[in-house]
Amino acid sequence: MTRRAFDCIIVVMKWAIILLTLNLSGCAAVYTGASTATMLATGKSIPDHVITQATGSDCSALRVVTGEKDYYCEQRDISKTYNRNRF
Predict the structure, then answer these.
(1) What is the dihedral of CA 39, 41, 43, 49, to 10 degrees?
(2) pTM higher than 0.70, yes or no?
């Protein structure tokens, strides 16, 4: 392999790393925006919704951070649940 070919490979690898980094940071910005919008609309972040669906409990990190409750998840009262469909 010649020196010039090696230098070209290095340049391509550097650009690939830069583009990958920019791409991943773009995804993080989209996720942060979506999670913030979800938090403002429902009072729960995206991971809170996922954990709520997985456990069947009502989970919210915001309640713990604001000091409203001392626990992350609380069991749902079945008598107050009108839609029994989990989907």
Answers:
(1) -70
(2) no
